[in-house]
Amino acid sequence: MPYEGHQSSPHGTTVADIILTLAPRVQLFSADVFGPAANSDIETLLRALRHAMDVWDCKVINLSLGVTEEALQVLQHRRQLYKIIEEAYFRGMIVVAAGHNDHPLVRSYPALFAPPLLSVNKGLLTIPCHSNMRSTST
């Protein structure tokens, strides 16, 4: 949707300001997947990711979402989100995802998908080892 002067959350604006302060010559794109009603669905998120990958050809994609497991109950939706993040990884794009503010009390998507993305959180973020995903430690 075109920007009409009202963002759904100031967090993305804050992250953009930090990026532009550290890298003032970067070309920055913004996709507000929550809109003025401050809610979204998986289809909107997937379309925004696809647009960032295919149209904008982004090298770094920031997902400051922190979606709870409760909000992403349908396994097919989790798989769709994982597959598109995995595709971005194999295309050489870096995807960064923020954990939910209530983490570790709730599981947080897409931050839980590390790897193939970088997870950031205000505290400790533990990643369970899934049969189709490997967990690494540094």
Overview of the structural elements:
The chain has 138 residues and is of the alpha/beta class. The protein is built from 3 helices and 5 strands, in the order H-H-E-E-H-E-E-E. The strands form 2 sheets. It has a 3-stranded parallel sheet with strand order 1-3-5, with helices on one face. Helix 2 packs parallel to helix 3.
Topology:
Blueprint: H1 10-22, H2 42-54, E1 60-63, E2 67-68, H3 75-90, E3 94-98, E4 108-109, E5 118-120
Helix pairs in contact: 2-3
Supply the number of helical segments: 3
Sheet bearing the most strands, described?
3 strands, parallel
Cα Rg: 15 Å
Stretches with pLDDT under 50, minimum 5 residues: 131-138
- State the helicity in percent bands: 25-40%
What global shape is seen? globular
Query: H/E series, N to C?
Result: HHEEHEEE
Given the helix and strand composition, which structural class is it?
Answer: alpha/beta
On the 0 to 100 scale, the average pLDDT is 76
> What portion of the residues fall into strands of 2 or more residues?
5-15%
How far apart lie the N and C ends? 40 Å
Side-by-side strand order of the widest sheet: 1-3-5
Total strand count, please? 5
